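Entry 14: structure prediction run for Lycopene cyclase domain-containing protein. Input pasted below.
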Amino acid sequence: MTYTVLALIAVPVALAVDLLVVRTRVVLTLQWWIAYAITLVGQLAVNGWLTGRRIVTYDGSAILGSNHERFVGDWRICYAPIEDIGFGFALVLLTIVSWRWWSSRGAHLPAND
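Run finished. Output tokens:
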């Protein structure tokens, strides 16, 4: 399975968990989109640094575009493949959804003694 296919699966799964499974409906709030925009800026900065310096590389057959790093173009943004945006979206959304869902059920971390 390619990185592209996995990214195309991750986004709808995260949305389904939010909207249909646990029904936290995080993505329907302005608060989410503001927080995600801030997160996306940080993600692009870190991805750009890691990929632009070739600390992280991608197999050209597993992503859209090629394995030639470009700042923008060839299905890349800030050197990173466009699929990274989908994965970042799904990761952050599932984290916030989990946090809200567990918090609404009174789940607390054990106190340090």
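Notes: The chain has one domain: 3-102. Will compare against the previous run tomorrow.
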